[in-house]
Amino acid sequence: MTDSSEANKERNREIAQNEEAKQVTGSVRVSISAIVAVVIVGGILFTLGWLALK
Description:
Elements: H1 2-53
């Protein structure tokens, strides 16, 4: 009984670590996507402003 309990605990730890890694990867992807979107929108607004002043 103790061996299977320890095996389950170890399995649960591994699952938790894998889930944490997935969450970190997802967060990084969302952050990069947000940064790219801000750079694109900023570039468009900068270009429109520059053309309006020209």
